[in-house]
Each structure stands twice: as C-alpha cells, then as structure tokens.
Design brief:
This protein is of the alpha+beta class and 351 residues long. The chain folds into 2 domains: 138 residues, Pnp Oxidase, Chain A; 116 residues, Split barrel-like (Alpha-Beta Barrel), CATH 3.20.180.10. It has 9 helices and 14 strands. The strands form 3 sheets. Strands 1, 2, 3, 4, 5, 6, 7, 8 and 9 form a 9-stranded antiparallel beta sheet that branches. A hairpin with a 2-residue loop joins strand 11 and strand 12. Helix 7 packs across helix 8. It is elongated and about 55 Å long. GO terms for molecular function: heme binding; protein homodimerization activity. It comes from Theobroma cacao. This is FMN binding. Pfam families: CREG_beta-barrel (PF13883), DUF2470 (PF10615).
Length: 351
C-alpha cells in the first residue's frame, strides 16, 4: 500500500469564516480523511487502534464562547477507532451498487468513455456487471477488457472517500452463472432484464484499487492496494446492518443520537443523523450553529457479530430507550463512554 498526505495552507479560522453558512454551502462537505468523518483530515498513517484507550471522549468541560469547537471535534476524532483502510474500502465497495465505468472507446480509438452502471461484488470483492450487447460500454469491453470502476461513498460530497478499481472485464463462466446471478439480484432485486437474451454477466478482475479523500481540504489523503491486499481483506460483518439501523434511529431516535454525540464530543450539536455503521463505530452528519459536518462516534471494542453488539443495560441518559424490538445506541459515563448496538430483533436483516 502506498499513501500520500499533502497539507494545505488554508487556516482553520479562515475556513470557518468561509464556510459559516447554511447546510447547502460547501460547509456541508467539510473535509475528512478516508476513514474518519471529521472536519479536519489527517494522514492515513494516523489510524486509531481497534482497541481504544480508557477514554475516547474529550476532557470533560462545558463548551463556552472561548472554545474552538472544531478543535474539540478534531481532538475527539483522533481517538476514534476506525476500520483498517483496506477493510474500509472492501466494505464500501461491497455495500455500493452504482459507479462510473470507464472503458477504451472502440469507436473513437484512444479516447476514454464513461458510463454509469449498476454492479454487485462477488465473494472475492470483484465487481459484477450485467451488460447488454447493445450497450456502447459492452462493445468497448469486448474490444479491450481494460477498464476502471469509480465509486464514491457519498456522491454529494466530493471530499468523501472515492475508490477507483482498475482491472480487466471478463465474461462470467457457465459454472459461475448461478452464483453471480444470485449475488447481483441480491443487490438489484428488480433487475428482471438480466435474463433477457442480449444480457450477460461480466466480472471485473481487479489489478489495483486506488482511493482518495479530503480533496480541496486541509489535508489530502490517497493511496492504493494491490489485488492480493484487496482480496485478502474482509467485508466488515456489522456494516451489513447499516441501512435498517440508521433508518430506524433517524426515524424514531434522532434525539437520542444527538444526545450521544453531544456527550461523546462535548459539543452541543443541534442535531445528528446516523449515516452508517461498522464493527468499530458509526458515522453521523451533525449540525452546530448553522454549520454542517460529519463525525465518527467510536465503540469501545470491535463487535464481531450481532451477539457481540448486545448490551441490555445503560447507566446513561434515561431518555435513551432500551428495547429488544429496537436497535438502540447506548452510552455510559462521560468520563468513560461506552457505546453498543442492541441488535437482537429479527426485524433487521443484511442489505
């Protein structure tokens, strides 16, 4: 793996002046490293351990007018546990369903051609495409198998993680057709056209996987992984529950999420909405005094499975309900915060 981190001269104060505006402004897209949702990206080499320190919270104390809110956020985020970079990339690709396919144009020799395509990853992390013989990109791939697939974790945020997988597109063998079809339809259940006569499945066999984040921010982070490194990594086991858990929390327990973020960061955020989660924590979009930014809220330990996420007790915030029928975020004391996911209901299934 090779990484790059390049600083920018834009100061913290000047950035706050520029971005002090509604959520529709660039403040909505505040920068962060590929694997930590914070307003101040940091080098990829500064990765938090999966085993956090005795306290991941900022030193206790109320926020006042003299306090630099975003410095508090940065201090908190530097301690937040995160997935290893290659595991994060493998997980994001596995959870994604659409990207930009770049091919070598058959008609316009030497020029690249781009197409928005749906895809699903197989068990080895290789993207699977369902392509029509009538499509221009299919003709391109049959003439030249070299291609790339660009996937953005948040297409609306140019500073967020962007992954580019380079590889060769090959037709799926007859022996693999059934497994590939099942994997593709699991992500695209309404894609009935995959059984049409002019459609076929193609697999992009990865050669190298690149990533970049923090574009146009205080610190640019980028790097790449070989095919062997990428395929040796695992999809995070808890990330599959992101969609149902985040949807439930945002619909029924948004106030509880806000309280947890406030207590964890010592910042009196106005709101906090859950974006996604993994075995080491969850990510939120929060607002404070007209500014909108992303934050990482860590768990105290890696959750290996649903059972490992369970915690039926909480000594914090009686307003945070605990129910065997709900997925609830729990937190203990401010000095030693503990977060768990209560995933005991059969209501939540992998997506």
């Amino acid at each position: 793996m090779r990484t790059l981190a390049a600083p920018c001269t834009l100061s913290l104060v000047s950035r706050l002046k520029v971005y002090k505006s509604p959520s529709s402004s660039p403040m909505f897209q505040l920068c962060h490293s590929p694997f930590s949702l914070i307003p101040f990206p940091r080098p990829l080499s500064i990765m938090a351990s999966a085993t956090p320190s005795s306290s991941q919270a900022v030193s206790p104390g109320d926020v006042n007018k003299e306090t630099n809110v975003f410095q508090l956020v940065q201090a908190h985020q530097e301690k937040a546990a995160r997935l290893p970079p290659v595991e994060e990339i493998r997980t994001v690709l596995d959870q994604s369903t659409r990207g930009m396919l770049s091919t070598f144009s058959e008609k316009h020799e030497g020029y690249p051609s781009g197409s928005m395509v749906d895809f699903a990853c197989d068990a080895n992390g290789s993207p699977i495409l369902a392509v029509s013989s009538l499509a221009v990109h299919t003709k391109d791939l049959l003439a030249n198998s070299k291609c790339s697939l660009l996937v953005a974790r948040d297409p609306e945020d140019r500073t967020d993680l962007v992954i580019t997988l380079h590889g060769d597109a090959v037709a799926v063998s007859e022996n693999d057709q059934a497994a590939v079809r099942t994997a593709y339809l699991a992500k695209h259940p309404n894609a009935f056209w995959v059984d049409f006569g002019d459609f076929q499945f193609m697999r992009i066999e990865p050669k190298v996987v690149r990533f970049v984040s923090g574009v146009a921010t205080a610190l640019l982070g980028s790097g790449e992984f070989s095919k062997e490194e990428y395929q040796a990594s695992k999809v995070d086991a808890i990330a599959q529950f992101s969609k149902p858990v985040a949807s439930h929390m945002n619909k029924d327990h948004a106030e509880d999420t806000k309280v947890i973020v406030q207590h964890s960061t010592s910042i009196p955020v106005d709101y906090a909405y859950m974006l996604d989660l993994d075995s080491l924590g969850f990510n939120v979009k929060a607002g404070y005094q007209g500014n909108t930014f992303k934050l990482r809220i860590p768990f105290p330990r890696r959750a290996e499975d649903r059972k490992g996420c369970e915690n039926p007790h909480s000594r914090y915030a009686p307003s945070c309900p605990v129910s065997s029928q709900l997925t609830t975020l729990l937190k203990e004391t401010k000095e030693d915060p503990v977060f768990y996911l209560h995933l005991t209901t059969t209501e939540y299934r992998p997506t």
